[in-house]
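Page 37, continued from 36.
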């Protein structure tokens, strides 16, 4: 990638605070920077989120940097490159300033190189005490313990002092813990995304760690047991494993699971959802329980915002469990935490979902049938409208023509839609086909037993269908 493009990408990623702080680095004698590169910073800063990397844009920048000179691409690239180097140093410095552990560790190493081993040792001892107080004893914790105790051991040996047996044991123990955590965590991340690999990913030491665990390594460590159960839930997804996992995950308290909190959350949640999709009614209430737990622990917010998929799912499961008042409160409290551009349509769709659950099918149609939903909401809103038409038809047979027109209109919309791939449209096309089949069989007054048998067979063949459980409910009415 060209240096100029790289510079622009870096600058665009900075916050307003960071772009302003960058001025201190650009003008600092610690980072000697030629005047043209300093000037470049001031040219780019006012509109750093909308930088123009086209040939014309670069020529305009060059003209500001070197008035009256003919455009020289090589000269401009050198200016860009010099500023890029300072930006990279600034980012590295910022990272170090924001990471106390890394900053103090680096400082101890610097003192060690200067021969100030006593000062270095004091910093490491202070760091060790601080690490010991960390509430989450995860992979990162054991890595720090291993590095610090190992560094202390090395310092003693290099200064020809007698090494501490206790320190040697602590280093070995920390290394064992770190290796076990790192191996299982890596395996978990890889296996949960196995579908992206062309061939099975070889995890050479995983079996050794599993064997050590069975023999007692970390058996009393509840956090490590959680990772082991999560791995089992992917490798051998059984109910007993899930409920053990859920119990352990829900009882971690306020400490949480650090950077893996959301990842571990979705492992449990997704298993429960898959069981529901497979028809296991024992799991009907569990996804909402998981989401409530996630809300209470505040782990569903990323940079203060909630993913619209999570928001929609919470509304869906709230309605499915008939917790209407709770769901209305959730919508009111969390709608403002969605990206601003989707708040209105998510609110309308969520309200329509509640109307549907309350059997207010005309209200569903009246509230969303004319709204210009974006691509992300268009299909699911049309499904909700179509389901409402069908529910009305079940109570009023004179509604048959309206229902038929609605199904045909949705099918036509799907076939005309060239922006979506066939794979994206297929679940909705299958939904229309099966709903149409149910309607035809009912009009022909075929027995419920025969309808159920035919539709269940068709559902099993097509597999990829939206609102599958709702369709299956309709064949027994």
């Amino acid at each position: 990638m060209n240096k100029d493009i790289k510079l622009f990408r870096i600058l665009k990623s900075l916050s307003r605070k960071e772009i302003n702080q960058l001025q201190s680095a650009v003008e600092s004698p610690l980072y000697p920077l030629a005047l043209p590169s300093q000037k470049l910073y001031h040219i780019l800063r006012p509109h750093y989120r909308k930088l123009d990397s086209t040939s014309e844009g670069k020529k305009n920048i060059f003209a500001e940097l070197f008035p009256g000179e003919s455009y020289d691409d090589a000269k401009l690239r050198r200016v860009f490159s010099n500023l890029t180097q300072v930006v990279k140093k600034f980012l590295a410095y910022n990272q170090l300033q924001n990471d106390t552990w890394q900053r103090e560790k680096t400082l101890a190493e610097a003192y060690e190189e200067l021969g100030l081993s006593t000062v270095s040792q004091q910093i490491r001892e202070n760091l060790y005490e601080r690490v010991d107080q960390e509430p989450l004893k995860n992979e990162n914790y054991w890595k720090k313990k291993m590095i610090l105790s190992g560094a202390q051991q090395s310092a003693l040996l290099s200064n020809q002092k007698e090494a501490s047996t206790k320190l040697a044991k602590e280093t070995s123990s920390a290394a064992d813990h770190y290796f076990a955590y790192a191996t299982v965590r890596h395996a978990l991340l890889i296996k949960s995304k196995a579908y992206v690999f062309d061939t099975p990913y070889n995890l050479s030491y995983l079996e050794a760690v599993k064997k050590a665990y069975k023999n007692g390594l970390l058996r009393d460590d509840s956090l490590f047991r959680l990772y082991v159960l999560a791995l089992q839930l992917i490798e051998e997804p059984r109910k007993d494993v899930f409920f053990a996992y859920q119990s352990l995950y829900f009882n971690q308290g306020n400490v949480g699971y650090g950077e893996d909190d959301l990842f571990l959350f979705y492992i449990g949640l997704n298993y429960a959802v898959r069981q529901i999709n497979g028809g296991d009614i024992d799991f009907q209430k569990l996804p909402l329980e998981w989401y409530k737990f996630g809300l209470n622990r505040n782990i569903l917010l990323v940079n203060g915002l909630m993913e619209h998929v999570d928001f929609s799912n919470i509304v869906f499961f709230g309605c499915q469990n008939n917790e209407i008042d709770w769901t209305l409160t959730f919508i009111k409290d969390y709608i403002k935490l969605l990206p601003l551009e989707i708040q209105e349509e998510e609110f309308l769709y969520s309200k329509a979902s509640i109307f549907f659950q309350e059997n207010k099918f005309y209200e569903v149609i009246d509230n969303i049938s004319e709204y210009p939903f974006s691509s992300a909401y268009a299909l699911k809103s049309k499904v909700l409208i179509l389901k409402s038409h069908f529910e009305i038809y079940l109570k009023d047979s004179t509604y048959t023509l309206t229902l038929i027109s609605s199904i045909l209109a949705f099918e036509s919309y799907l076939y005309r839609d060239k922006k979506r791939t066939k794979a994206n449209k297929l679940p909705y096309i299958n939904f229309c086909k099966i709903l149409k089949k149910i309607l035809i069989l009912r009009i022909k007054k075929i027995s419920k037993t025969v309808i159920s048998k035919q539709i269940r067979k068709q559902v099993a063949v097509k597999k990829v269908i939206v609102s599958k459980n709702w369709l299956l409910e309709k064949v027994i009415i």
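The chain has a mean pLDDT of 89. Flag for discussion at group meeting. Residues 165-192 form the longest helix (28 residues).
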